[in-house]
């Protein structure tokens, strides 16, 4: 939908657009509005309604600002991953691998299991599933769970950088950039792989280098009961969807087809599957599209372009640091939504989109609030384990710095 010219808006409407835009992003940064129970999703809804109410976004044009390709891809992947979750695929997959390991092999196994699963499925779901399992297996192995829980959070973020379907911001970038699934993986897959080794190394150095592991009887770790009749169809459909991505089928269409097939079921109640969908995140995306659309109509993004030229954001290292910093202030999805208007104006948009995906994802490992995946791990681990801010930062800072450096160097000098 073409943006209105700022000249078509009155000074009052432009001032209102700035106020709505800034207020919304303040809530995105703080997590809630001071003194009120307004979270990020609520702020996105209020901001979107205000943009339309003040006619900064015309009601007849509102739907044109929403990128339905992103919404369909995100919703469909939630249904597919939710179905796999309900039939026990992730738990069985993780325990089938980890049951065969010795205690000293558990850390790399958790890192790479979470990383690989997050590369092809939404990382938030992987964290949600892995936390109770990690708590269970560390209890049976009689080892401290902190390092392994940190591995779930950091590895799921790193692994998700590899593909368009790894996390919500990558889905957004995939829709706007038009980058092919294979192309995306070819450029960022190596960054994810090296990043997982870095993750393992840092976690081992901080938490495990002086720990002596005793061998345990692995027969004490039972595999969960699994109904193959329920598992077969979701796995085949999920595999077909991933193959479709590699063959070049539009990701949103391929995911939607897979989700539609899975909804045809004799055994799974639809209401169970609908509960697996993060409806708040979908609404958050819709609200953000309208807020940023209003900002474009009011000329706010044009001013951001001027700032970008002044700061010389086209230099890859400056852009990488700026993205990482902004993502840790306002969260990665709002940051990407804001920066998507700048990237097409870069000398090499293809590289800029990839840098945006890399930096916005890896920056999420800096602090607990850097990504939703981190928050899921911290909250899900309670009351068994209390992960404090300093516990996370001890590993989050070196992991973020090193992986961002690897990602920047790879995309700048190699790819």
Keywords:
single chain; 415 residues; mainly alpha; 2 domains; 71% helix; 0% strand; globular
Topology:
Layout: H1 11-30, H2 40-53, H3 62-65, H4 68-86, H5 89-98, H6 106-120, H7 123-141, H8 146-160, H9 168-177, H10 181-208, H11 228-247, H12 251-263, H13 270-274, H14 279-297, H15 300-311, H16 316-330, H17 332-339, H18 349-362, H19 372-381, H20 389-414
Uncertain residue segments: none
Q: What's the overall average pLDDT, rounded?
A: 86
Shape: globular
Oligomer kind: single chain
Order of helices and strands: HHHHHHHHHHHHHHHHHHHH
Largest β sheet strand count, sense and barrel closure: none
N- and C-termini, Cα separation:
33 Å
Describe what you observe in this structure.
The protein has 415 residues and is an all-alpha fold. It is built from 20 helices and no strands. It has helices at 11-30, 40-53, 62-65, 68-86, 89-98, 106-120, 123-141, 146-160, 168-177, 181-208, 228-247, 251-263, 270-274, 279-297, 300-311, 316-330, 332-339, 349-362, 372-381, 389-414. Helix 11 (228-247) packs antiparallel against helix 12 (251-263). The radius of gyration is 22 Å and the shape is globular.
Short synopsis of the structure:
The chain contains 20 helices and no strands.
């Amino acid at each position: 939908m073409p943006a209105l010219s700022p000249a078509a808006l009155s000074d009052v409407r432009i001032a209102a657009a700035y106020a709505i835009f800034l207020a919304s992003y303040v809530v995105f940064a703080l997590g809630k509005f001071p003194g009120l129970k307004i979270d990020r999703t609520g702020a996105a809804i209020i901001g979107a309604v205000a943009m339309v109410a003040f006619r900064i976004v015309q009601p007849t044009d509102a739907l044109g600002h929403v990128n339905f390709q992103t919404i369909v891809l995100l919703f469909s992947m939630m249904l597919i991953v939710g179905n796999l979750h309900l039939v026990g695929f992730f738990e069985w997959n993780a325990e089938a691998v980890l049951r065969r390991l010795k205690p000293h092999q558990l850390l790399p196994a958790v890192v790479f299991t979470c990383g690989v699963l997050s590369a092809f499925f939404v990382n938030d779901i992987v964290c949600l599933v892995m936390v109770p399992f990690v708590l269970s297996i560390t209890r049976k192995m009689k080892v401290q769970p902190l390092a392994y829980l940190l591995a779930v959070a950091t590895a799921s973020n790193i692994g998700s950088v590899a593909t368009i379907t790894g996390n919500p911001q990558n889905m957004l970038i995939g829709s706007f950039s038009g980058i092919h699934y294979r192309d995306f993986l070819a450029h960022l897959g190596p960054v994810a792989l090296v990043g997982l080794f870095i993750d393992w190394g840092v976690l081992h150095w901080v938490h495990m280098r002086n720990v002596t592991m005793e061998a345990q009887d692995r027969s004490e770790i039972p595999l969960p009961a699994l109904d193959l009749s329920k598992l077969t169809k979701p796995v085949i459909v999920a595999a077909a969807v991933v193959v479709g991505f590699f063959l070049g089928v539009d990701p949103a269409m391929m995911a939607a087809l897979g989700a539609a097939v899975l909804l045809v079921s004799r055994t799974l109640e639809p209401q169970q599957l609908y509960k697996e969908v993060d409806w708040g995140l979908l609404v958050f995306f819709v609200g953000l599209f309208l807020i940023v659309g209003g900002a474009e109509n009011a000329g706010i993004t044009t001013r951001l372009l001027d700032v970008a030229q002044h700061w010389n954001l086209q230099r890859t290292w400056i852009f990488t640091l700026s993205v990482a910093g902004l993502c840790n202030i306002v969260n990665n999805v709002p940051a990407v939504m804001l920066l998507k208007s700048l990237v097409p104006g870069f000398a090499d948009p293809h590289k800029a989109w990839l840098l945006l995906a890399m930096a916005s994802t890896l920056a999420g490992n800096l602090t607990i609030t850097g990504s939703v995946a981190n928050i899921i791990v911290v909250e899900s681990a309670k009351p068994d384990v209390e992960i404090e801010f300093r516990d996370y930062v001890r590993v989050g800072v070196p992991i973020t710095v090193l992986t961002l450096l690897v990602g920047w160097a790879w995309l700048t000098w190699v790819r």
